[in-house]
Amino acid sequence: MSNPSVIDVLRRSTAGPDAPPPPEQGVEPELAAQLDGVHFPNLALNGGFQWKAVGERSDRLDGRMTWTVFYEHEGDLVSYTIVGGSPLEVPADAEPRRKDGLDMALLRDEHGHDVAMFERDGRTCLISGYVEQRSTLVRLAAWTRG
After folding, report:
1. What is the mean pLDDT of residues 44-59?
2. 137 membership: H or E segment, kind and range
């Protein structure tokens, strides 16, 4: 299994959904979807976010599974991608950030998508989208089950 770049993963995840969203689990803080034991958050219920899951896609990239759930809020769309396998390398030009004990890296891809990159349970996760403030992605990335 090779290590794709963050940009390679983003190219797939920003292509948009190709399936309906994973189901909610009642009032559970996670959706009924996970990759390698890392669950997708139910951002419609948690932390007052009100981001509703609206679609998903899964891809294989350099032998690794990637799974993306798309969330919408007031017409804005963000993608939350979990990458299977060992963590990806953080790009050298990424801006380090820490929120609520979570270390993350912020960057922007060639299409202007802002990205928060972080690890959850040993897997790389990416939240990306066109947002007015990067702090939105930071808050979404720092989501915790409780």
Report:
1. 86
2. helix 134-141
Paired with 67 in beta bridges are: 58, 82
Q: Decide if 29 contacts 41 (C-beta within 8 A).
A: yes
Walk me through the domains of the chain, giving residue ranges and CATH numbers. Answer: 6-141 (3.30.200.100)
State the average pLDDT for the chain.
89
- Which of 4-18, 54-68, 109-123 has the lowest average pLDDT? 4-18
Residues 112, 30, 9, 57: is their CA dihedral positive or negative? negative
**Scanning the structure block, which residue is given the tokens 């890296």?**
105
Long-range pairs of 93-99 with CB within 8 A, sequence gap ≥ 24: 97/138, 99/138, 99/139, 99/141, 99/142
pLDDT digit string (tens) for 13-51? 888 899 999 988 877 888 989 999 999 999 887 667 789
Reading the block at residue 91, the tokens are 């790009």
* Radius of gyration over every alpha carbon of the chain, rounded to an integer in angstroms: 14
Phi, psi of 134 (to 5 degrees): -60, -25
